[in-house]
User: Fold this.
Amino acid sequence: MIVKNGNIFHLQGKNTSYMFSVNESGDLVHLYYGKKLRDKKYDWYIRGNSALSSCDASGKSLDAIPQEYPAYGYTDLKMPAYEVLNKNGNTVSRLTFKSYDIVDDIHPVDGMPYLLKGDMRPQTLYITLEDKNAGIEAILSYTVFDNYDIIARNVRIKNISGTKMTVQRAYSLALEVPKSGYKAVYLNGGWGNERNIKETEITEGIKLDISVARGASSHDINPFVMVADKDADEGSGAVYSAVLIYSGNHSTTVESDRYGNIRLLQGINPFGFAWELEDGEVFETPQSILTYSEQGYGGISRELHDVFRNNLSRSKWAKKERPILINNWEATYFDFDEEKLLSIARCAKEQGMDLFVLDDGWFGVRDNDRCSLGDWFVNRDKIPSGIDGLAKKVNDLGLRFGLWFEPEAINPDSKLYRAHPDWIIRVPGMEPSLGRYEYLLDLAKDEVCDYIINAVSDILRTANVGYVKWDMNRVMTDMPYPGYNHKFYLGFYRVMSTICTSFPDVLFEGCASGGGRFDAGVLAYMPQIWTSDNSDAVKRLQIQYGTSLAYPISSISAHVTAVPNHQNGRVTSLKTRGDIAQCGVFGYELDITKMTEDELKELREQITDCKKLRPLMLNGDFYRLKNPFEGNICAWEMAAKDKSEAYLMCAKVLSEAHEREKAIKLCGLSADADYLDTYTNTVYGGDELMYKGIVPKFGMYDFATYTVHLVKIEN
Ligand code: DGJ
Assistant:
């Protein structure tokens, strides 16, 4: 609910309140973000907060005032939320209140994904600010939902100067909170090593600048941050978080000032960015999601998981159980023919899988990664039946058929490049740089986007393709002008939105050299994302654990692959690989035709298990119980929202002599109910499981897992 009481705007979520006001000078002053306050007429200025009331009268400085959308240079000297080079040749600005509006709906962001209404009752507050001197109008949007503790924010900047101006930075939000002993928690990594959890203490100065200019949201830094009380942990403590619904270059900064405030900014990375606006034109930022929880990191994650599952995805698959797939990539790489593919598919069906996915190498003359990207025509030497024929054969086996594309990329050795050398991203006069032997297509051009839409659609129209793996395998370089990256992503979102709308039954899975574009912008169209090319079960403990900080388990694609693992050579048991992949969108990526009958028997049991666990993994509340970044043990749990069922997975990395395992305490159960562990037929009390805990029985070997599947016993 959003109310205005006097000069104070009060935004209420389920358990939270967010307040700001318009002071006597028209500045938008942040007042409060935290546990829910009753809706009443507050008079905080009068009660001793005069510092907030005006900054004109006695030389009071904006520097000392927490603001909703601060500028640099007019008495505030910290990192600004926006910067516009105006007709006078400077960037000094002061936006003051002009008007407001409250509507009973979400705010649809132009050309980019945003939170949908779902079955919630959202309200959006629009605040219009104006700086007549600089010729800027800014409309801040704040959307709240009746049953969430989130605030979706974005900004539109309009040129009202009568002439051209340049937006040099426009963050989606600023949040200023009174300083205490805070730490920042964020996700960083690299290829095969995505989303490590990192913490840093927030002391004075710009203590965090997690900005990315690699062209995509990247393996390196995820567009997500938590600002937490220094004592906060998984289960308790006050935590603020911000996550951006965006897939391009992004930036999150945290600055701690001399007045005892912390300023958090999140949005498009200002580095490499500039956006020219003619008079009357508008620049709109992506949407950023704020969350506050007093239940620690876990509280933030569960809130984001719910929001992303229910209000972000445009796909009808978001709430549907996902098919258990087999992907041929690690089974064959480029070396396959139709018979080999069908033998894998046949075997997959016999074990109970739902979907066969044909990965890279089916088009052009692509026998390695050096050619043919862009030529989306089947290679009949490898697949004589064509994609339509192969899809039919796979369908006839009783499986859905899935297909890999990398539509944003092109090899110089391709028919498409020879026909359209001008379609790539490049700097005029400079040799364009290659990454994995490929260029990126220039999605800022409408005709290039149309080509991609048509090329992919033609295949989806002529063959019965039920799933698409949408890959993208290089960083973006050679950007021809500042702001190019954003133009590219506007093109990308148009492509995604057109294709996903035209083919609503197709399940899309995002991918970017593993998990190089795991963000809420992609999730809006593709409800699951390949999490990492590193499929080693032990490394996946960390990667999946870290990813779950912001993103739901139902988005985290996880496959059982062969051993020794192709990325790091580690050998783990089939059980360990299966148990760890179960907490994700489960699948296989190995040559099952080479497995022994004993292995296949175990695999069938995993599949049966997965089918049993799928609804829980799709809808439950996720609890991280033991952090694999901090020790030898990892544990996580998925608990049904109605407390009727839970799944616990514990893993031990290295076996130790004379081990004394500690009990793992579960969460989210009914204390007064009894639960049956369906694996061992043991009955536990909910109170016992939560307060005393359960001791994992790992056995004396490395990389061991222990799982418990609990079902509430109805009396
Ligand atoms: C990178 C992906 O992450 C892999 O899963 C695979 O699809 C390859 N690309 C294919 O080139």
